[in-house]
Amino acid sequence: MAFPVRCCALVGRFEDPRIAESVSALLPHLARRGVEVLVSEHNPPGVPGADVTRVADAELGARTDLLIAIGGDGTLLHAARLVARRAVPLLGVNRGRLGFLTDVMPQNMLQWVDAALAGELEADRRQLLTATLHQADGRHAQAFALNDVVMQKHDTGRTLDFDTRVNGRYVNTHTGDGIIVASATGSTAYALSCGGPIIEPHLEALVIAPICAHTLSDRPIVVSARSVIEIALHERPDTRANVICDGAILGSLVPGDRLETRTAGEHVTLLHPPAHDYYKILRSKLHWGRGSVER
After folding, report:
1. Angle of helix 17-32 relative to helix 109-117, nearest 10 degrees?
2. I need a labelling partner for 62 at 20 to 30 A (CA). Which of 29, 82, 171, 234 fits?
3. Going by C-beta distance under 8 Å and a sequence separation of 6 or more, which residues neighbour residue 282?
C-alpha cells in the first residue's frame, strides 16, 4: 500500500439512510484531500453521488489503495472477498448492530480515515479460509472466507447425516442441521451461537461446530489451523445442502460431493485505531463485566 493514499474504494449499502449519512460526510472530505473514490458499478444510479468512479467489483481491489467498508460486519466480510488476493487494507466504519470487525464509530470516522490515508493506523493481518466444493462429476468451485464456511440443510425440514474428516482421518458421523468451520476471527460469529469457544484472532486454530446436533455429545472441537477438514453427506432421499462462505453461497452439496476447508495462503489486513483492544470489544459486544467495577 502506498502512502499517502490517492485512491480509495467505498463499499456499503448506500441506500440505507444511516450509511448514506456517513458517505455524504466522507465524500467531500476525501475530495478535499485529492483522493479518487471508487464504488461498485452495481450500486443504483445516483448512489452514493456524482463524485465517484464506478468500476466492476473485480477492479475495486486491483485499483484502490484502501478499502473502506461502511456498515456491519457482513459488509466488511464482503469487502474482504474483494481484496482477498490483493495487499489492500480494510477500514471498517460501524453502522451495523454488533461490529466485532468494524470498530471505527461514525462520530470518529473522519479522524481515523485521515489517519488511514497517512498510514498511521494499526495493521492487523487476519488469516483467510478457502473452501473447495468437489463435485462428483469432476467440477469444483472455490471461495475465500474470513469468518466461516458453513454447510447447512437446503429447503427441507429434515436433518442431514454427514461425516467429517480431519487430515484424512475419520472424526464423526453427525446428524443435525449442518456444520461450521470457523477461523479464529470467525469464532465470535455463527460458531459462537452453536456453543463454540472464543479464540483470540491470532491463534492458529480452527473451530468445527455442529449446528443443532441431534445428540448432546456432538460438541464443537478446536483443531490446528494447518488441518484440512472434509465433509461428505450420506445418501438419503432428497438430501441436499448449501455451502456458504461468509454469507455468500458457494454452491450445493449432494451425496457423492465433498467439501474441503483449509487455511488459505492469503491474508487480509484490517486497520484499527491506536490502542485497539480486542478484549474491550468482547466486553462491549457481549456485555461482560456489567455491575462490576470498571478496571
Report:
1. 40
2. 29
3. 188, 198, 288
- Catalytic residue, chosen from 16, 57, 65, 73, is 73
* Prediction pTM value: 0.93
All cell numbers assigned to 192: 459462537
**How many Å from the N-terminal Cα to the C-terminal Cα in the chain?**
37
Cβ within 8 Å of residue 114, ≥6 positions away = 33
| 73 is known as an active-site residue | yes
Q: The CATH number of the domain where 220 resides is what? A: 2.60.200.30
Residue 83 shares a structural domain with residue 186: no
128-179 confidence digits (pLDDT tens)? 999 999 999 999 999 999 999 999 998 777 899 999 999 999 999 999 999 9
Quote the cell numbers at residue 245: 462462505
Same domain? For 213 and 281 the reply is no
The boundaries of the domain holding residue 136 are 128-266
Same domain, 172 and 198: yes
User: According to DSSP H, which parts of the chain are helical?
Assistant: 17-32, 57-63, 73-82, 109-117, 190-193, 278-286
State the cell numbers at 50.
Answer: 456524482
